[in-house]
């Protein structure tokens, strides 16, 4: 069973995830500068819109775990204005099919495209949107990542004002021909992410943590219709997970690894460099995961950094000096950034606060 299904089971309270295996490869999130558009965008699934011609595609998607080039290409463009976050996804696919038509069903049982957004970059209170080739949506709000083993999903939450459209370059659900693929275009209102009536949350000249995932299944044709392929024992074969910013593990629900989308209000091309304080936070999450593993093994939390790592923790040639503080319900790990002098604290539940 893939972690995609394990996450769903956790959300429904069936069982808990107890493994925290992580890739030893350093994960460096992708970055993208989304330009502000002044030209209206018609959401019709057509990539030839003038606004889209003025911006660049992301890198091609990679395998979620190992970064290997997938069988079929996927790429994205992003734009924004004062009302919406615009996303254009183009997916190569010789067999475009979908059969889920009811909103908020488990859309990743079909091939789909998924959007993950964490506006304030604290890994809590983030958003997920899944859409298939029938333009059927499943939108979710998550109060915290699945790894905290709580019932964290608000499944009846919907994106008000969501606009999306699909254009199939070929024929949908026709196994008798070969398709080129499908294009998904969407406009997500900024109002979706407001935390209060007076919240001014349009991220002009700011970054949000964002990632995209494409779920792709091997298929079989039964009675002239597509369905997910099964093995000799009648179990569904595992899905492929292709993403914009690779995670190092088969789990999208580690928001600290998502990409950085910077919403530029300037005309012309603009570059974006990941802030050094963000790299300090990455190291705190490495310690957080080490604490998880230590607790599984010893049934207590580590009381010193030396229990978690024997290597110096270095960011851009600066040595970090984190400190562990244990308390009745868990622990805090605090570190002072050598770049901003701001102190960052990660708690036992994985939330980072600053002071």
TrEMBL record:
User: Which keywords accompany this UniProt record?
Assistant: Signal
Record flagged with keyword Flavoprotein:
no
Annotated signal peptide: 1-21
PANTHER family recorded: CARBOHYDRATE-BINDING DOMAIN-CONTAINING PROTEIN (PTHR35532:SF5), SIMILAR TO POLYHYDROXYALKANOATE DEPOLYMERASE (PTHR35532)
Q: Which Pfam families match?
A: CBM9_1
The name of this protein is Carbohydrate-binding family 9-like protein
- In this chain the Carbohydrate-binding domain maps to 43-195
Which Gene3D superfamilies did the record assign?
A: 2.60.40.1190
Q: Which InterPro entries match?
A: Carb-bd_dom_fam9
């Amino acid at each position: 069973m893939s972690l995609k299904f394990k996450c769903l089971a956790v959300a429904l309270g069936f069982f808990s995830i107890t493994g925290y295996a992580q890739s030893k490869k350093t994960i460096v999130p992708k970055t993208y500068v989304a330009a502000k558009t002044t030209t209206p965008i018609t959401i019709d699934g057509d990539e030839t819109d003038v606004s889209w011609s003025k911006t660049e595609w992301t890198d091609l998607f990679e395998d979620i775990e190992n970064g290997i080039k997938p069988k079929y290409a996927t790429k994205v463009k992003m734009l924004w204005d004062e009302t919406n976050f615009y996303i254009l996804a183009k997916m190569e696919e010789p067999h475009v099919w979908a059969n889920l038509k009811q909103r908020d069903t488990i859309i990743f049982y079909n091939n789909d495209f998924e959007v993950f957004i964490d506006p304030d970059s604290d890994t809590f209170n983030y958003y997920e949107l899944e859409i298939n080739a029938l333009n059927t949506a499943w939108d979710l709000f998550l109060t915290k990542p699945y790894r905290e083993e709580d019932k964290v999903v608000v499944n009846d939450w919907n994106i008000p004002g969501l606009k999306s459209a699909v254009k199939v370059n070929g024929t949908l659900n026709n196994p008798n021909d070969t398709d080129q693929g499908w294009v998904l275009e969407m406009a997500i209102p900024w109002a979706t992410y407001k935390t209060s009536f007076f919240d001014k949350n349009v991220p002009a000249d700011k970054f949000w943590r964002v990632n995209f995932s494409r779920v792709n299944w091997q298929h079989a044709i039964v009675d002239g219709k597509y369905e997910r392929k099964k093995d000799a024992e009648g179990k569904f074969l595992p899905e492929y997970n292709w993403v914009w910013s690779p995670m190092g593990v088969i789990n999208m629900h580690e928001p600290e690894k998502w990409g950085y989308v910077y919403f530029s209000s300037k005309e012309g091309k603009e570059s974006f460099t990941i802030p050094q304080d963000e790299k300090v936070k990455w190291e705190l999450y490495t310690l957080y995961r080490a604490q998880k593993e230590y607790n599984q093994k010893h049934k207590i939390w580590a009381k010193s950094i030396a229990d978690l790592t024997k290597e110096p923790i270095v960011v851009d040639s600066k040595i970090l000096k984190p400190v562990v503080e244990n308390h009745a319900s868990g622990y805090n790990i605090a570190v002072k950034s050598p770049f901003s002098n701001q102190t960052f604290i990660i708690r036992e539940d994985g939330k980072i606060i600053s002071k």
